[in-house]
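Issue: ligand-bound run for copper (II) ion - logging full I/O for the record.

Environment: standard queue, default settings, no custom constraints.

Inputs:
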Amino acid sequence: MRAVVRSRHQYDGLASLYLPIGLGVFALVVVLFVVFLWRYRASARPEADRRSRSNMAEGAWIAVVAAIVAVLLVATLHTEQRVDARAPDPAVSVEVTAAKWDWHFAYAGGTILRNEAVVPAGRTIRFAVRSLDVLHGFWIPDVRFQRDVWPEHVERFDLVFDRAGTYPGVCAWFCGLRHQNMHFVVRALEPAAFATWAAEHAAR
Ligand SMILES: [Cu+2]
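Outputs:
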């Protein structure tokens, strides 16, 4: 069986690669800026062989930037690939419909919840999300996950909610006058509690 992929871990790992590189480049630019300001200030004598030295420096700078971009690109594509991959055996499938200004979560047994999803914690949940009207954004910050949804298209993805608890979700795109009310929650229950919940709702 394929290992369970947690979007939160994946994107946190990516951020811990981007952040030090970003800070390092920022520090380098600031240091070079100050050094050049000091060295080539108006009172200093102008350098003689500006052209040959700057060609080398520019070449080195381009090579460093290209290498950094290549590393970040490969790491990002790998992460996206892992997050986008769908499990062959999701524990629960939920069909989500976004429409101004609500989210509806439908289960195989016929249960439909408004602005709330109930799922088992620690299990792979398959979401199939569609929009009935305009562009919406299915965003759950705690799992570092956001997907755009638009009409006549179904967006499918897997998520895992590690611990039992409440995970707030919001619409990530301005979609009209009451966009700011377009919230939902994912309630993750312990698997046994989820089984009870599912049995109760199936019996209705
Ligand atoms: Cu929306």
